[in-house]
Amino acid sequence: MTIEKPWQRWLLRITLFIAMMILVVPGAWVVLTAFRPNVEVMARPPVWIPEVWTLDNFLGIFGLLPDRQQGLPVERYFINSLVISLTSTVVAILVGMMGGYAFARYRFKGKGALFLSFMLSRTVPGVALSLPLFILWSKIGLIDTKFGLILVYMAINIPFTIWLTDGFFRQIPADLSEAAQIDGCTRWQAFWKVEFPLARSGLASAGIFAFLTAWNEFALASQLTRTTASKTMPVGLMDFTAQFTVDWTGMSAMAVLIIIPALILTFIVQKHLIAGLTFGGVKG
After folding, report:
1. pLDDT tens across 155-184, in order?
2. Please, what's the b/e burial string for 30-66 (b: 16 or more CB within 10 A of its CB; e: otherwise)?
3. Using CA atoms, how far apart are residues 122 and 263, in angstroms rounded to an integer?
4. pLDDT tens-digit profile of 15-46?
5. Where would I find the beta strands (DSSP E) of 105-251?
6. What's the rounded Cα separation, in Å, for the pair 144 and 68?
7. E strand or H helix at 222
8. 3-state SS string over 255-280?
């Protein structure tokens, strides 16, 4: 479908602009609040652009300002989030890659039902799993452990990774692997030297989605963690809330620290991400 009339193009542009503003404004407000003094947060009328830019909010959460509240264990929260997100992502990619390859290349009994069961398990919202997981993890001693969260995020990300990599491997002709084996490669060598490089963009896409899912997840992490030994960055945001007050500037500064690694990773794999997202729609 092509848009030929000028008024249709302008209507589309205006609609997209409004949609993007709805998506961008809340995030932009959080970033701006991280650099504004506390007095401007509750100002009426609202102060959109900070009149005074400051880094005190970032210094305060690290305990570098003596006249502010004590610093939080931000470094520990960051390390916990990094370990949990990277470990669960690596395992999800390895298992999902093998599962996706098996579904794309092999025929076996119950293949369709098994694939459907993986996809249905991904449709269950995390909030609905919080209570059953809390009871189960309590019985086996995984509450307030990084390993417990890693298992949860693996279970969440593996079905999605299998589904995504299955689609990418199906786009790669099986003849390439067969030709490599005729030339003397083993099945593993044919996969690693021929098929894996072609699917690398798809795996990068799956990896970034798996990492962001684990990095940003709050509902399950808030139920399964208790102390700084296992709390992640999103859960650490709750440390800025008290019975009657909320430190909005400190919370916003912490939120910016959560955003930065995700942005850096996205920019690093941007080339592969774009290629991976468009790979399935390109033929020939």
Report:
1. 999 998 998 888 888 888 888 888 888 888
2. bebbbbbbbebbeeeeebeeeeeebebbbebbeeeee
3. 25
4. 988 998 888 888 888 999 999 988 888 888 88
5. none
6. 29
7. helix 219-224
8. HHHHHHHHHHHHHHCHHHHHHHHHHC
